[in-house]
Amino acid sequence: MYHVAICDDDAQQRQIVKSMLTKISLKTDMEFHTMMFSSGEELITYYKDQGDTFHLLILDVEMGGMNGIQTANELRKLKIMDVQIMFLTSYPEYMVQSFDVMTFQYLIKPIQESVLEEKLIKLHQYFQAMDKKYVVIKSDYDDLMLKYEDILWIEVIKSLTIKNKLKVVTSDHSYETKGILSAYAATLKEHGFMQIHRSVLINLMHVHKFTGAQVTMLDGTSLPIGRSKIKEVKDTYTKFMIMRVQ
Fold it and tell me: Which of 20, 60, 147, 228 pairs with 135 at a CA distance of 20 to 30 A?
């Protein structure tokens, strides 16, 4: 069962999307529980009161008051990272802006049910695959299994007593382990990670912006980019985001 929020200031459009989800559910093995919101402000208030309860947000970009991209940005600031976002719009030029909030898909109005179904099947496959994607971190006390998507970055820690000490950072905790950063980089490359500095490996899903020789992560932390890697990092990030919306 997937919990879906439909946020659009047009009541007719909300009902159209809900009806499409019902039809798609009857044709596939996916089930949807939907809630409807008439504004970005209403959705933000719900999240503040209820917490992270949705798998997917279907957000209209052009809404009165807080638009869809602003709404998504506010949710990311609230550390709502796991929910996938699908933007609906009549204007394709908004696509580049949507990269900053980790969009799952981008649909142009009027929405075709066949296209929505195709995107939802991809989302279903994505969730199934993510359930299997873990990395084992050997901490001081035991072995931890962390989802790739939960890791923000891994960095080398200088230590006088421990060789090859690393810190693995998630949204709510950090873990110390031992290992070679380049080995993690090779293992995690296919899962959206990139080594941006000799001592830093980041998860591209959690990037907020680039400023000069630094990257700012969604939690506000700034990390250094090796000078020789600046162009490569930005190019790789752009390709990564384009692949996610195809």
Answer: 228
Instruction: Return d(Cα 244, Cα 105) in angstroms, integer.
Output: 7
Of 110, 115, 127, which Cα lies nearest the Cα of 56?
Answer: 127
- Percent pLDDT > 70 in the chain is 89
CA–CA separation, 200 and 203 (whole Å): 10
From the list 129, 136, 206, 197, the residue with the least C-alpha distance to 172 is 206
Q: Are 69 and 101 in contact (CB under 8 A)?
A: yes
Within a 10 A sphere around the Cβ of 80, how many other Cβ atoms?
A: 17
Closest CA to 203 of 143, 121, 130: 130
CA distance 232 to 152: 19
Give the pLDDT confidence of 22-65 residue by residue, as tens digits.
Answer: 999 999 988 899 999 999 999 999 998 887 778 899 999 989 89
